[in-house]
Design a protein that fits this description.
This protein folds into three domains: 41 residues; 374 residues, Alkaline Phosphatase, subunit A; 75 residues, 2-Layer Sandwich (Arylsulfatase, C-terminal domain). 35% of the residues lie in helices and 15% in strands. It has 16 helices and 13 strands. The strands form two sheets. The chain has an eight-stranded mixed β-sheet, with helices on both faces. Strands 3-10-11-12-13 form a five-stranded mixed β-sheet. The longest helix has 32 residues.
Length: 507
Amino acid sequence: MEDSSHSPGKGRETQTRNLPMTLKTARLAALAFATLALLGNARAAKEKPNILFIIADDQCWETIGAIGGEVITPNLDRLVEEGTRFDHAYNMGSWSGAVCVASRHMFNTGRTVWNAHRATKDSSKWRKEHKGTPNPNAIKSWSQLMGDAGYETYFAGKWHVELFKPDKVFDHVGTVRPGMPNQVPEGYNRPKDENDKEWLPWDKKWQGFWKGGTHWSEVLRDEAIGFIETAAKEPDPFFMYIAFNAPHDPRQAPKEFVDMYPLDKVKVPENFLPRYPYDEQIGCGPKLRDAKLAPFPRTEYAIKVNRQEYYALITHMDEQIGKILEALKKSGKADNTYIIYTADHGLAVGHHGLIGKQNMYEHSLCPPLIINGPGIEAGKRIKSRVYIQDIVPTTLELAGAKPDQPIDFKSLLPHTKGSPSSNRDVIYGAYTKLQRCVIQDGWKLIHYPEAEVYRLYHLDKDSDEMTDLAPNPEFAGKLAAMKKVLSEEMLRLNDPLPSKASPNPSK
């Protein structure tokens, strides 16, 4: 039953009929003002932009056709052409071999890597000590902050965030996937040679992405389209968080997608190595799960097959993204929707003799980052270095949200408007206790604390990071300066290993 005390209809009119004229007029005026305010708020809610956030898993920046050239991605190419792309977008690193876990915790907390790690540990400790009692000091998730700003929130796909449960922090939840599809022994250390055909990416008997009968990327597509069709009928703006497991291994796609990449056309990376010289000391030796996907030592043939299957899964994912974008267009919501595309980090797949993402090289730190939407310049390239988690305050700013908790990252909107004040002086990276890096003014320093090794690269002149300048006396001054930057950045970001990682910046 309608509450007449909040309605300008007949019930309210009856209540004011016998009042003195002046009081009656004042009451009606106040009522009219309140009604206009409510209508204004409703219009404002409708005018707030929708946010469609799409995140892939394990996608290197170079694997979009319009950027790297080798992978067929017509729908992502269109996002590049119609939006703004960031050429140097970084994931900050990880406290575990599952780099995606740290990345997704940073997204969903808005905290830098070690602050996010601390929040996760504090939450786990609270649960153990208080037996499930809600923590009064718990931080809000990204989606909850968007909900506070008036957004209807939706999630489906890969979650992998211990700190929050999707059904507790989103209004609508589709299928929630684990960190990766199931693995089988036959999918590792392959292919051994040209005759090794036991594991094939389109063979559904291995399950993986085919578990349940329909490819996981297609399930995610269908669920996302279903929500868009429902949201099109609602007045509130939406925040959609669509998380593909693709192109994470096992890299399974229908055969027609694999056939799009004949092996004789697949290139081996310029910085290919049969084996990385410090792989054991940095945690990337044969014991690392990701590293075991291809045989040791690496062969050009094995890398070509792995890249072929990687590209095929990306192209298959691109097709599903295209259908989601088409549904958005049909919904009538596209003109008032920001589409933000990225991945949780990059991937090596043969670069430097590495396979996974557990390293400090550009191919593994950097996924693609594209923003498309109202007021975003088409075809623009931004070369400033940013963090992918800068997406979080960007969406909060677009939503007009006023978070009641700290957000460690910085909005990308000033970059899209050409503001030099938004540029970062330093980019930092970390992997467990075994690797650290900093980037400043086009120079990158990598440190391997356990191996007591520094590597120095001039990215502006050596984008493939093939020439280590650390042993060269000519660059001793730059090496010392970058060590100092690393030490300072580790302290600033609450790195748990500042003294161990750089005990004496001058040496």
